[in-house]
UniProtKB/TrEMBL annotation:
<feature type="transmembrane region" description="Helical">
    <location>
        <begin position="7"/>
        <end position="27"/>
    </location>
</feature>
<keyword id="KW-0378">Hydrolase</keyword>
<protein>
    <submittedName>
        <fullName>CAAX amino terminal protease family protein</fullName>
    </submittedName>
</protein>
<feature type="transmembrane region" description="Helical">
    <location>
        <begin position="47"/>
        <end position="67"/>
    </location>
</feature>
<keyword id="KW-0472">Membrane</keyword>
<comment type="similarity">
    <text>Belongs to the UPF0177 family.</text>
</comment>
<feature type="domain" description="CAAX prenyl protease 2/Lysostaphin resistance protein A-like">
    <location>
        <begin position="131"/>
        <end position="223"/>
    </location>
</feature>
<dbReference type="InterPro" id="IPR052710">
    <property type="entry name" value="CAAX_protease"/>
</dbReference>
<keyword id="KW-0645">Protease</keyword>
<dbReference type="GO" id="GO:0004175">
    <property type="term" value="F:endopeptidase activity"/>
</dbReference>
<keyword id="KW-0812">Transmembrane</keyword>
<feature type="transmembrane region" description="Helical">
    <location>
        <begin position="88"/>
        <end position="110"/>
    </location>
</feature>
<keyword id="KW-1133">Transmembrane helix</keyword>
<feature type="transmembrane region" description="Helical">
    <location>
        <begin position="165"/>
        <end position="182"/>
    </location>
</feature>
<dbReference type="GO" id="GO:0006508">
    <property type="term" value="P:proteolysis"/>
</dbReference>
<feature type="transmembrane region" description="Helical">
    <location>
        <begin position="130"/>
        <end position="153"/>
    </location>
</feature>
<dbReference type="InterPro" id="IPR003675">
    <property type="entry name" value="Rce1/LyrA-like_dom"/>
</dbReference>
Length: 226
């Protein structure tokens, strides 16, 4: 492939990836709009209905695109893998390490060494307005969206050769982008979010099955809420 054609392909892939991210953000924004009108039950209910339709359509589109990617080009052979005791033990170990990382982060915040991230403040504010639907979105839907976008589609578009260098770059850069999506400043909280992203990226790369990173993301968000 010529350099100009390669650059054109990558530019198109970047544009598509950003497009999927925008679709996800738009879907989550519709739920926030419903929360803004929580004191108007009629309007809030109708906006919530639209938000659910938009969210379902967005998730279906992104999941479909991920599946099409795997069908077209899948050098790492991502897909559904058989569950074994060894994989369960490995998954539990990664989860325990991730929880320990979260506990360290929470400790630093409690000691006022780090400020509460703006993303966390926004999530807590949304929980007060539409607690049930925002809990469902944060714990169940957001992990699916984010794993498909930041792990599945991202790793298939970029660094998709199955070798050590590409695998490491995929894990690290995916984690850093995940961190920046949650903390729009290059500070310590961004690094902490990026660390969580690297746990998830490693899980996806290790098991070669996105269900594991989705499950880990689900458990992390659930533990964070209780």
């Amino acid at each position: 492939m010529s350099p100009s054609r390669y650059l054109g392909t990558k530019a198109l892939q970047i544009a598509k990836w950003i497009g999927f991210l925008i679709i996800y953000l738009f879907a989550s924004a519709t739920l926030e709009v419903a929360g803004d009108y929580v004191h108007n039950e009629f309007l809030s209910r109708h906006i919530l209905g639209v938000a659910l339709v938009v969210t379902a359509a967005a998730l279906a589109l992104i999941a479909w695109r991920y599946g099409k990617q795997l069908d077209a080009d899948n050098p790492r052979r991502f897909g559904k893998s058989k569950l074994t005791r060894q994989k369960i033990a490995q998954f539990v170990l990664i989860f325990v390490l991730m929880v320990a990382f979260q506990m360290l982060w929470s400790y630093l915040i409690s000691k006022h060494i780090l400020a509460i991230p703006d993303n966390q403040k926004a999530v807590e504010a949304d929980q007060l307005r539409l607690p049930v639907w925002n809990a469902i979105f944060s714990v169940i839907l957001a992990p699916i969206f984010e794993e498909l976008i930041f792990r599945g589609i991202f790793m298939n578009y970029f660094f998709n050769k199955d070798n050590r260098l590409n695998n490491i770059l995929a894990i690290v850069i995916s984690g850093l982008l995940f961190g920046y999506a949650h903390e729009l400043q290059f500070n310590v909280n961004w690094l902490m979010y990026s660390g969580l992203g690297c746990f998830l990226s490693y899980t996806y790369m290790h098991f070669r099955d996105i269900r594991y990173s989705i499950g880990l993301h689900f458990l992390n968000n659930f533990v964070s809420m209780i």
